[in-house]
Specification:
CATH topology of the largest domain: Rossmann fold
Low-confidence stretches: 1-17, 57-62, 508-512
Number of helices: 31
Mean pLDDT: 90
Strand content: 5-15%
CATH class of the largest domain: Alpha Beta
CATH superfamily of the largest domain: Thiamin diphosphate (ThDP)-binding fold, Pyr/PP domains
Shape: globular
Number of domains: 4
Number of strands: 24
Radius of gyration: 34 Å
Strand order of the largest sheet: 3-9-10-8-7-4-6-5
Helix content: 25-40%
Structural class: alpha/beta
């Protein structure tokens, strides 16, 4: 009977006549399974994988069946080495390797009589056969010495084969000449030397020593040099405090004398609060075989891994402004701790962003300083539920190299392989530097209290420099005297305060200044450009609603575009979506760049933006703002992944490296920024004060009480106002389309770079009163405070009601309905920096006003009240009866039922407009 393919006989009998055919067919299967008929292919696979006890071919007299079975056994053994050999690798300085029974040839029916028998090492890619003894030597050397490799989980066969050839072709070992070995010892001497010096001179001070992981210094040096040789011009590093001082001095070239002054407390920051020495960043330039490489170590708070997305955003900004192969030109390097890499969710968020359009940087080189202990006392079995601390990286199929930190040559070999992989495939790669921590969490800690056995071993264990010096002495490359001289020379250089890294190019202080000089020292009151003429706005509006011929937009989107064209013609008042998009168009029109990300930003969560339109027949996406005219600015808009912490960290990093792009992150609902609070607290609000880093990042946070419950009402305005000091950021609550138009333009056009927090509306996006005329967008600018129109007689006003946001329209409609012409409604559109001059000027318009009430929708202990009421005190030559109108204090941001919400709104409006002022009253 023929097989289904008709190409090969589907025989179940074995004889002398067809033995040669079956053997040839099996070897063909081993080379390329797809060329064999499906039925034979399945039989051979079952046979090779041991899924059947029955032979594929009945046994005959002779050796062919035994040879086939033996090759299948060898194949399974090889696969075990490649897949699980890392489990038996001798890559842990603190414990010997544990041989796995899965790597025992006897488990596969192989014995000593097979050792000299030739077998295929790689049946799919080579016709060469080797004795089993040689195959096992290659596999053990490659997968079970000082490097353990995880790569067989990668689905891309091209990547797997490249890694296999690279590893097995070199037996996972580098080849270093005598001079390279001496240089390696010199770097280890430096890594150990700075720690010894600080330990001796600054007894008991925290430095978060690198001791036990000294191989990190030659690793970074090799990484930078190899990247430079491949065309890299910038390397951006992010790391927490472990080993940071060592990296600053020995890699980035920070002068030791500057570090010593920081230890001694005599280095006072130039303005701002400053930060502890092991959080500070630095930048410098070093030479490489391919030319100069600019190194940047990002500033980092104690929140460990939060720097990860910030570095990625900074790298993406640098890549976006470079021509050519920017992913080679700028390379991100992230240095992690083992417990933090496994334990902190922002690591997963950052990894998840790695290959998305909005956040890719062409691959990150991750280095895990694996001390095998978390923080102070945590054991690995309490720190994670995975075998390795790096297992989270398996989600993006990154190769992981587990390397013994006590073998610096193995470390350098893996570093080279990691750099080559990143450059070839533009994907993330992980180096797990398995080492230990010689001291406790800090140098005053006593680790043996909780880890007696580990630290009994560590205290007897020689440092990596001593081990390597002995190794080189045994090879006759470096004598004991030479090694001692290296140490003495390094210590003398430190004592003199000399730079001890590779020679630097230019100023060793190297802080980034050039792109930011024009933005420093600028006040928030700096003027900005007025809006474009009406005719120009109409032309921009026409282009931002134009779609390609034959493009079929959704009927609702087409209706919106039609309405926007009428708005541009002056036939309809402008709504929020029109004004916001027109703000972007007016900036792009004149060559400015914009980056807008967040969940649903293309359409807009509340169906108002429609900056990205989808063809209803083909699904093709089109962004009209990217096609306004030739020579326009770049408009990057991406619907982000479902992340806040990672994404906001990325956008902060982008904005801190690119002052000339309007960078915007929009939360789906304003309170979703809760998930990124650490970015707001430790970077956005305080980055300038701590580190002198400016950022023009804009946050759009939908805010407004619509009866949608506690989690979809408040953007937690009070939190931002609590963080405000020293004009560190701006907090605005615009209430009209013209206001958002001018506010967005002001953020980029004014030479002032501070974060902007915008509480944007939901119901106001389509509110009948929240509209603007086109001439309000032309000319003029953002108004920090909006008073009453001239139709009100200022001399009749006795009560001033101040507010921010949507509640203004509730107050306005009630005042009109009740004819309360003795009340003026004042909108504070910029809550911080508070527009005091505008406020005092407004008060002068109402000489008879005696009552001043702040009205808000948020509970009394939330919203703006407690952060703004002091602004109403101390008015020159005036005294007011000041009161509050709003919900009572509450642990929840809003009530959870719509009827409650309606009643609450009625009560707060009544208290603001009708009831007597009572500063101590609260609504029950």
């Amino acid at each position: 009977m023929n097989s289904k393919s008709g190409l090969f006989p589907n025989t179940t009998a074995f004889s002398e006549d067809n033995a040669g055919f079956v053997e040839a067919l099996y070897e063909q299967f081993l080379r390329d399974p797809e060329t064999v008929a499906p039925d034979w292919r399945e039989k051979f696979r079952a046979f090779r994988e041991g899924r059947t006890a029955e032979p594929v071919i009945p046994v005959r007299t002779g050796d062919i069946d035994r040879a086939v079975r033996k090759q299948a056994a060898v194949d399974r053994l090889i696969d075990q080495y490649r897949t699980h050999g890392h489990l038996s690798a001798d890559n842990n300085p603190l414990r010997p390797a544990s041989p796995s029974r899965d790597l025992d040839p006897a488990r596969y029916g192989l014995d000593s009589t097979d050792m000299d028998t030739p077998f295929y090492l790689d049946v799919l890619h080579s016709d060469e056969k080797l004795p089993l003894r040689s195959i096992l030597d290659t596999l053990r050397a490659t997968y079970c010495r000082h490097v353990g490799v995880e790569y067989m989980h990668i689905m891309d066969s091209e990547i797997r084969e490249w890694l296999r050839q690279s590893l097995e072709g070199s037996r996972a070992q580098g080849h270093f000449g005598p001079e390279q070995k001496r240089e390696l010892l010199r770097l280890l001497t430096a890594a150990e030397g700075i720690e010894k010096y600080l330990h001796r001179k600054y007894v008991g001070q925290k430095r978060f020593s690198l001791e036990g992981a000294e191989s990190l210094i030659p690793l970074l040096d090799e990484l930078i040099q190899r990247c430079g040789a491949k065309g890299t011009r910038e390397v951006v590093l992010g790391m927490a405090h472990r080993g940071r001082l060592n990296v600053l001095v020995n890699i980035l070239g920070k002068k030791p004398e500057l570090l010593f002054r920081e230890f001694e407390g005599t280095e006072i920051p130039d303005g701002g609060s400053g930060d502890v020495k092991y959080h500070l960043g630095f930048s410098s330039d070093v030479e490489s075989p391919g030319g100069p490489v600019h190194l940047t170590l990002a500033f980092n708070p104690s929140h460990l891994e939060i720097i990860d997305p910030v570095v990625e955003g900074s790298v993406r900004a640098r890549q976006d402004r470079l021509p050519g192969d920017a992913e080679v030109a700028v390379v991100p390097v992230l240095i992690h701790g083992d417990a933090a890499f496994a334990g902190q969710g922002v690591v997963m968020e950052t990894l998840n962003m790695a290959e998305t359009r909005a956040y890719t940087t062409g691959g990150t080189i991750h280095i895990v300083i694996n001390n095998q202990i978390g923080f102070t006392t945590s054991n690995p079995f309490d720190a994670r539920s995975t075998l390795y601390c790096t297992d989270v990286a398996n989600m993006i199929q990154a190769p992981v190299f587990h390397v013994n930190g006590d073998d610096p040559e193995a470390v350098l070999y893996i570093t080279r392989l990691a750099v080559d992989y990143r450059m070839k495939f533009r994907r993330d790669v992980v180096i797990d530097l398995i080492c230990y921590r010689r001291h406790g969490h800090n140098e005053a800690d006593e680790p043996a209290v909780t880890q007696p056995l580990m630290y009994r071993f560590i205290r007897r264990h020689p440092p990596v420099r001593a081990l390597y010096a002995e190794r080189l002495a045994a090879m006759g490359i470096v004598s004991a005297e030479d090694a001692a001289r290296m140490d003495n020379d390094y210590q003398e250089a430190l004592a003199k305060g000399e730079t001890v890294s590779r020679p630097l190019l230019g100023d060793a202080a190297g802080y980034i200044k050039t792109r930011w000089d024009r933005y420093r020292g600028v006040e928030w009151t700096a003027p900005t450009e007025a809006g474009p003429p009406v005719a120009d706005l109409a032309a921009m509006a026409e282009r931002m609603t134009a779609l390609p011929d034959g493009f079929e937009a959704h009927a609702r989107v087409e209706a919106i575009h039609t309405a926007r064209r009428r708005m541009a013609a002056g036939e309809l008042p402008a709504d929020w979506g029109f004004a916001e998009n027109l703000a972007y168009a007016s900036l792009l029109w004149h060559g400015h760049n914009i980056r807008l990300t967040g969940q649903d930003v293309g359409r807009g969560t509340f169906f108002h933006r429609h900056a990205i339109v989808h063809d209803q027949r083909t699904g093709q996406a089109y962004a009209p703002l990217q096609h306004l005219k030739a020579g326009q600015g770049r408009f990057d808009i991406y619907d982000s992944l479902l992340s806040e912490e990672g994404v906001l960290g990325f956008e902060y990093g982008y904005s801190s490296s690119e002052p000339e792009t309007l960078v915007i992150w929009e939360a789906q609902f304003g309170d979703f920024a809760n998930n990124a609070q650490v970015v707001i607290d430790q970077f956005i609000s305080s980055g300038e004060t701590k580190w002198g880093r400016l950022s023009g990042l804009t946050l759009l946070l939908p805010h407004g009480y619509e009866g949608q419950g506690p989690e979809h009402s408040s953007a937690r305005l009070e939190r931002y106002l609590q963080l405000c000091a020293g004009n560190n950021m701006q907090v605005c609550v615009p209430t009209t389309p013209a206001q958002i138009f001018h506010l967005l333009r002001r953020q980029l056009l004014r030479p002032y770079r501070r974060p902007l927090i915008v509480l944007t509306p939901k119901s106001l996006l389509r509110h009948k009163l929240a509209t603007s005329h086109l001439d309000e967008l032309s000319g003029g600018g953002f108004r920090c405070l909006i008073g009453e129109t001239d139709e009100h007689d200022p001399t009749r006003i006795t009560r001033l009601v101040l507010c921010a946001g949507k509640v203004y329209y509730d107050l306005l409609e009630t005042r009109r309905r009740e004819n309360l012409d003795h009340i003026a409604l004042i909108r504070i559109e910029q809550l911080y920096p508070f527009p005091r001059e505008d406020f005092l000027a407004m008060l002068k318009r109402y000489p008879k006003a005696q009552e001043l009430i702040w009205c808000q929708e948020e509970p009394e202990n939330q919203g703006a009240w407690h952060q703004i009421k002091h602004r109403f005190l101390g008015v020159p030559d005036r005294s007011f009866n000041i009161g509050y109108a709003g919900p009572p204090m509450s642990a929840s941001p809003a009530v959870g039922h719509f009827r409650q919400h309606i009643e609450q709104q009625k009560m707060l409006v009544e208290r603001a407009l009708v009831l007597p002022v009572n500063p101590t009253a609260t609504m029950e």
